[in-house]
Design a protein that fits this description.
By secondary structure, this protein is an alpha/beta fold.
Length: about 550
């Protein structure tokens, strides 16, 4: 947005000013940094600079200002209006770039240094209303310290907020509004009012009788009719049952209900880490560098809070068992005209945790299995993972070993029970390998962060040009994201190998019940029947090498 003072016939010179304004809800509420106040202060600064020019030249000076306003977080370099302001500086070379304070400019130290150097490289002078910035070694040092303090202050605010939430969760409280179908959220003022009036404390979440009845109906449909979320959503829409927001039902909404342990009184909190995503929500979709979904925390960091139950445990368990079978049966739907493969959809790489696929090979005149990360670029992922070293492996021997393992289990369920119990007592070789790979990834992550710090240091010393540094930092950031993605995949794989005595007993009992019927038909089973049996009994088959494949039961 452009602002210009009234022209005078005596004006002989115009100074062009880029004004950058940024505000967040917290700042506006606590510190009074509203947009009008920032604009007023920055324009007064511009007029003061014009006055100096007038004094030196003895001629009236017109201030022509161009305004850029952001509401995104100060730790983001991809803020829309900041990007526009940087382009404006490169193309128009204004006399001044004015901002209220360095912490409005950026709350990430390396970003502030990069942008400041970029502005000065265009011949524009950087000015702050609340900070005396000097383009000298000492001035840049104080500027860097000011931004670093702002960055530290924001980190402390996040830490205190997170600590407060964790404390409330640990005390059995619920730190935010929970909009779960089947429940009503009782606000803190409402609870206090009821207590003052002598009513019993209803708790934060109370069952909604109408919605709770439909929750029980959904679980009964799953347990008794063995139908999935899509069919349930269609039924609810046909019956004109309103969803929580009054709209229609969708598969994802129903799926979230029929798998949520909140309905047996277990509300899981602290599952996701949303750190660094607050500012991303203010950006256009094409400018976002991260998805607006939190990163799943390790399961040991989750906290379970007790809430009133809507379902009994037996109905919940029966429904979950049905859903697990539905998932395995549909994990690899065979397209018309294709027969599929015995282990399609349940093969996992033991080196990096990525899926393993079947590929045809003319040289061996047969199928091989290959890790999806063997050629990661062709996957088209936003963050490209490191290349996996698992070689191509002939599929037939792997399939034969897995089928022999299934036959052994049905021929002797006692042997199956002993194997599973031993795996429970002693960490398997597979688990030990995952732990070792996780330790290696932790070292690689630390090395990448060290490289990142080194580049920032060289920028502050003027050894590396800002544009070169920005490219290097972007590459390091992509590498960090890929390592974190691989780390998360291995953590999930490690969690899937954990077993409990209850799940082992249920699993062995299922095999015993099927033993006679399956043994009589195993040798005559066609491909589709073998696929069904494998998906019923196995969660995944982890391939470590051509001579070793580990079967993970669907406990």
């Amino acid at each position: 947005m452009q602002f210009a003072e009234p022209r005078s016939t005596q004006v002989k010179r115009t100074i062009k000013v880029a004004v950058y304004l940024r505000v967040s809800t917290v700042d506006q509420g606590k510190r009074g940094f509203s947009i009008p106040e920032q604009r007023k202060a920055c324009l007064e600064k511009a007029r003061a600079l014009a006055k100096v020019v007038e004094t030196d030249s003895f001629d009236p000076v017109l201030v022509e200002s161009y305004e850029f306003v952001d509401t995104a977080g100060g730790d983001l370099i991809e803020r829309p209006e900041l990007s526009n302001a940087r382009e404006f500086v490169k193309e128009s070379h204004p006399d001044y770039f004015i901002c209220l304070d360095p912490d409005r400019f950026s709350r990430a130290t390396y970003q502030a240094i990069l942008i400041a150097n970029e502005i000065e490289a265009a011949g524009t002078k950087l000015e702050f209303v609340q900070h005396d910035y000097q383009a000298t070694s000492e001035g840049r040092l104080f500027f860097t310290l000011r931004v670093a303090i702002a960055e530290y202050e924001k980190a402390k605010i996040i830490e205190r907020t997170s600590r407060g939430k964790r404390g409330k969760i640990a005390a059995g409280g619920i730190p935010h509004n929970i909009r779960a179908y089947g429940y009503d959220h009782v606000s803190e003022p409402e609870r206090q009012l009821r207590q003052r009036e002598g009513h019993p404390d209803p708790g934060t979440l109370v069952p909604n009788s109408t919605e709770a009845a439909w929750v029980r109906q959904m679980y009964e449909w799953v347990a008794n009719e063995e139908i999935g979320s899509m069919t349930i959503a269609e039924r609810l829409n046909e019956m004109a049952v309103p969803a929580k927001n009054g709209g229609s039902w969708h598969r994802g909404v129903v799926d979230g209900i029929i798998r949520n342990p909140i309905y047996i009184g277990q509300l899981r909190l602290n599952r996701f880490d949303f750190t660094g995503l607050g500012g991303q929500a203010h950006l256009p979709a094409e400018k976002r560098t991260k998805k607006l979904t939190g990163k799943l925390r390790p399961e040991e960091e989750w906290v379970t809070v007790s809430v009133p139950a809507i379902l009994d445990a037996d109905l919940w368990e029966r429904a979950q068992a049905v859903l697990q079978n539905i998932k395995r049966r549909s994990s690899t739907r065979i397209s018309p005209g294709r027969r599929g493969h015995f282990l399609s959809g349940i093969l996992t790489c033991g080196l990096c945790g990525a899926p393993v696929h079947y590929v045809w090979n003319n040289k061996v005149n047969g199928y091989l299995v290959r890790c999806a990360n063997r050629y990661p670029l062709v996957r088209g992922l936003k963050e490209t993972p490191p290349t996996c070293s698992l070689p191509h492996i002939k599929a037939a021997p792997i399939e034969a070993r897995v089928w022999d393992k299934l036959k052994d289990w049905f021929e002797d369920p006692d042997l199956l029970e002993e194997d599973l119990a031993r795996q429970q007592e002693e960490p398997s070789e597979h688990q030990a390998e995952i732990q070792e790979k996780l330790a290696q990834l932790a070292e690689q992550l630390e090395e990448a962060k060290t490289r990142q710090s080194r580049v920032l240091y060289l920028v502050t010393k003027g050894v590396v040009h800002p544009e070169v540094a920005e490219a290097q930092l972007g590459e390091i950031k992509r590498h960090l994201d890929a390592l974190e993605q691989q780390q998360e995949a291995l953590k999930q794989m490690l969690g899937r190998t954990n077993q409990t005595a209850t799940s082992i007993g249920r699993y062995v009992g299922m095999v015993r019940d099927m033993q006679k019927e399956v043994l009589e038909e195993m040798e005559q089973m066609d491909l589709q029947q073998r696929q069904t049996l494998a998906r019923m009994l196995l969660r995944e088959v982890v391939i470590h090498s051509k001579d070793r494949a580990e079967t993970i039961p669907a406990l």
